[in-house]
């Protein structure tokens, strides 16, 4: 099971959920799921996390999704922060 960044929600345009809301396309020479419009133009992605605001996923994850070997869910920025706070509380881990 994989989790991807839903940003402010997949019902908004402010997310980075390429696997759950994207469509297959080519970016940087690789076929992958992308956030793109009906003309194939890449759309902006959003996530509170640095590095997760990318409009696509690697071809490996695209293959795993299509083959059914992996399932992907998306969580919002708020849900991710709540999970981080719970992890810190329960495990005593304080992120740097």
From TrEMBL:
One of its GO terms (molecular function) is tryptophan synthase activity. Its cofactor is pyridoxal 5'-phosphate. Keywords: Lyase, Pyridoxal phosphate. GO terms for cellular component: cytoplasm. Coiled coil: none annotated. Its EC number is 4.2.1.20. It comes from the Bacteria. InterPro entries: Trp_synth_beta/beta-like, TrpB-like_PALP_sf. This is Tryptophan synthase subunit beta. It comes from Shouchella clausii. The lineage of its organism: Bacteria, Bacillati, Bacillota, Bacilli, Bacillales.
């Amino acid at each position: 099971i994989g989790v991807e960044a839903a940003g402010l929600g997949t019902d908004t345009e402010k997310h980075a959920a390429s696997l759950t809301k994207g469509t297959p396309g080519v970016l940087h020479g690789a076929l992958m799921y992308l956030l793109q419009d009906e003309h194939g133009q890449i759309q902006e992605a959003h996530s509170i996390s640095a590095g997760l605001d990318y409009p696509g996923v690697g071809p490996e994850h695209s293959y795993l999704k299509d083959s059914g070997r992996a399932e992907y869910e998306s969580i919002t920025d708020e849900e991710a922060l709540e999970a981080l706070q719970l992890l810190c509380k329960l495990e005593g881990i304080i992120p740097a």
